[in-house]
Specification:
By secondary structure, the protein is α/β, with parallel strands linked by helices. The chain is about 35% helix and about 15% strand. It has a single domain (about 1-254), classed as Rossmann fold.
């Protein structure tokens, strides 16, 4: 599929896109790499983006693929948190001169109520403070992408009820974030707030750049397992209660 998409892009006149499970991006890597070299406007729609594929088992559950795609120079990877972020991500992909990979979930996700949250337009800048921008000196920042963002928001609610002021940053695209001025990066990740917790259902490789020396990560550092995604979420620590416990441990150790 990757070679066909590249050929269509080189022919011109259209913006080609194709879709498959994220785990199968491994088979497309040479063509994705060439698209990035040639700055071809190709859109890859990768679904089933984490171990929460569930009963399909570890052979179909991506773990290292997200980090692998992020390692390709010139490829923009976007892992949106809900339908609104996905809509903005599509616009980014259509307007960009170069390949873009959209990583989408299998499981149903809530559409985030933006009444008390930042607008999804923040996706164009790669990462943005989704909640808590009014908190001048937060105790902790939770960074998350994709399906883990709504869990981060739930954890922030619970931490707030305990008097722990928490910001939540939606972090759909490292590449777009790296294009922003340093002033904006410091706005999302203030140097004065070293306590940070990353939450992403993939290997943690690369997150240390944004977590800093005192940050920690809830990630997946092994292959998955065959089980309903709710069971896997509990086993791998992707629940509100597990995120709260990890946040409290970071705070108590500081």
């Amino acid at each position: 599929m990757g070679g066909i998409l590249n050929g269509l892009a080189l022919h011109g006149g259209i913006i080609p896109y194709g879709g498959t499970f994220l785990v199968f991006s491994d088979y497309m890597r040479p063509n994705i790499r060439l698209a990035a070299m040639m700055r071809l406007p190709v859109i890859y729609v990768f679904t089933q983006d984490s171990v929460f594929v569930g009963e399909d088992g570890p052979t179909h559950q991506p773990v290292e693929q997200l980090a692998s795609l992020r390692a390709i120079p010139g490829l923009v990877v976007v892992r949106p948190a809900d339908g609104n972020e996905t809509a903005v991500a599509w616009r980014v992909a259509l307007e960009r001169q170069g390949p873009v990979a959209l990583l989408l979930t299998r499981q149903k996700l809530p559409v985030l109520d933006r009444l008390n949250l930042a607008d999804a337009e923040g996706v164009v800048r790669g990462a943005y403070t989704l909640r808590g921008s009014e908190i001048e000196a937060p105790d902790l920042i939770i960074l998350a992408s994709g399906s883990e963002v709504h869990l981060a928001l739930g954890a922030a609610d619970e931490l707030g009820s305990k008097g722990i002021e928490t910001r939540v940053a939606s972090f759909p695209s490292w590449e777009l974030f790296e294009e922003q001025p340093q002033s904006y990066k410091d706005e999302v990740l203030p140097p004065s707030v070293p306590l940070r917790l990353g939450v992403e259902a993939a290997v943690a490789q690369g997150w240390e750049k944004y977590l800093g020396p005192q940050g920690q990560m809830i990630s997946v550092e092994r292959f998955g397992a065959s089980a309903p995604y709710e069971v896997l979420a509990e086993k791998f620590g992707f629940t509100i209660s597990k995120i709260v416990s990890k946040a409290e441990a970071i705070l108590s150790a500081s």
